[in-house]
């Protein structure tokens, strides 16, 4: 067989990002604190960048995040940067991504899905996305998603990626392997009984000694219902809101919070030197650094413009929230905002990542305004709050002698045109603090 070398012309479309676009995308994903750190790093490496710090009295109020990971925030307090030096620590996302990086047996696509799951963990470490929606998003089967969720749940700390308290505790029991024999069934069926101290009732049900139930309960109490507590620092954290919404004359006004960001200007000495310097090498160096400085300034300007535009579109969709709070949130997806502002969905995702907004109702992550809805048989989409009210109403009307199981509640909802899975009913019921049917029967 003869071989030969020859040239072939080939025409193809290829997306190539310029340095300006790359830096703009990088800056876009930074929170205020991360951007402040990035600006100072750039200034240290570039003599043409001159920074002017804001006076301390111009620092805006901060909102403290409780260590419990609760969704609500306490009232604003003035943040003293001298008394609250941030601790250098590994973020939860980084910690899990390091574990993902060593998984050699999965494909690139599967890795992307696991990364998506990691980014949809809530502050407690629970998975906060619907498996059907994830499967549809990545064009894979629900079974494949379940498989990848199991992979995530194999990471440290034990219990990460659980979808409920019961699953979180069960994952830890399986990982440990030395739990008392009744532990698993008590977690799945009798957490409420254990919390109420009904040890004898459970013991009679399984024909075991009360001491066995108490032993299993003691073991369960040692488990961690909040997996991220093992990763997160015990110190108080503070949030610098990236945006502020205030009401003026009945209208809500959005402001970009740049009070903690240093003001950037070009050093006058080096700017003059650039005009007068005769040395070609020095002039080339100064031109490069001037270009970098201007690129940084434009990137920050674009970040603010995009952040404002995206936030404005979000609040236009969630206008009722500003008057009524969380209960008025409506279903909203990234694609809806992307279509409105004319950006790619991934750009919107970067924009809201790690960003917080201070509103008259408190401080919230921008991500909190995106809630999944349930598609009705009519084609309309209703919010989880609407479904919860339906579940609450069904439970209130049930026969006190025969409380409805989660599956029967799901069947009632389906009859009303609301297709919803049993496990979703169970999740919403627990969030409403409604006991399971066996427990309701005992109380009634």
UniProtKB/TrEMBL annotation:
One Pfam family per UniProt: Sigma54_CBD
Transport is among the record's keywords: no
RNA polymerase sigma factor 54 core-binding domain mapped to chain residues: 85-270
Entry keywords, A to Z: DNA-binding, DNA-directed RNA polymerase, Nucleotidyltransferase, Sigma factor, Transcription, Transcription regulation, Transferase
Keyword DNA-binding: yes
Domain RNA polymerase sigma factor 54 DNA-binding per the UniProt entry, residue ranges: 284-440
NCBIfam families in the cross-refs: rpoN_sigma
Family: Belongs to the sigma-54 factor family.
PANTHER family tied to this protein: RNA POLYMERASE SIGMA-54 FACTOR
Full protein name: RNA polymerase factor sigma-54
Source species of the chain: Ureibacillus aquaedulcis
Gene name of the record: rpoN
